[in-house]
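re: ur question from yesterday

yeah so i grabbed the chain u mentioned. its 247 aa long if i counted rite. heres the sequnce exactly as i have it in my notes:
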Amino acid sequence: MVTVGIDLAAEAVRTAVAWLDWSPDRARLVRVEAGADDDLIVEAVMGASKAGIDCPLGWPDRFVDFVTAHRAGHVRVPEGLGRAWRRDLALRVTDQVVHEQTGLTPLSVSADRIGHATMRCAAVLAELARLGRPVDRRGGGAVVEVYPAACLKRWGLPYRGYKRTANLTELGRLVDRLLEAAPWLDLGAYEPLCRASDDATDAVVSALAARASALGLVTVPAGEQAGTAATEGWIALPTTPLDRLVL
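ran it thru and got these structure tokens back, copy pasting raw so excuse formatting
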């Protein structure tokens, strides 16, 4: 099995893709590409058993309804005009579930700059569908939405303070801790890149999360959540320790 992790940014320069090749007792990092363009991302997903994308796969349903109503001049808001009613416009159901379960709040796709990355992601999903590999935004198909920080926290690893060049020491500590927790993970020739690029490391974590999803070891939407997740997307959180990813 090959799983792919995609740390998707609005532009190729901050986008990384990682490929993990899985055997019964080992996972080997066989390729990492920084500066990944759309064609490479599509190629990676098409060739993988499962791909984990660190990017929202959709917008909050209530936000979409709100914008549509606003365009037509028919917006209705609750009495008081307080902050609470805007919560469901800014956060998807899955974002709120992630906060409840981990204490972390994903960036708002409708109110933060990550919306630019999601526009790019939407184009990638459309191309995958055109090529005969449509995406189930609930995570049941070729692609699953992942959140590296939440994965790391669930696995008991450092999940903050390792981003950007100024924090390379913390990034190195994260890689050390990851290899200690998963001695079966072989970063090979790409270990120096993971220690130098948080994008590359997040792509590797996303590929690990994709493996968890492929094995059914992640949270899935239930009940009414499933209908909403089909349009908004669903962040799959690992439900087991790292060592369960090798058989």
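noticed a couple things. Strands lie at 2-7, 16-23, 26-34, 50-54, 143-145, 185-186. also The longest strand covers residues 26-34.
anyway ttyl
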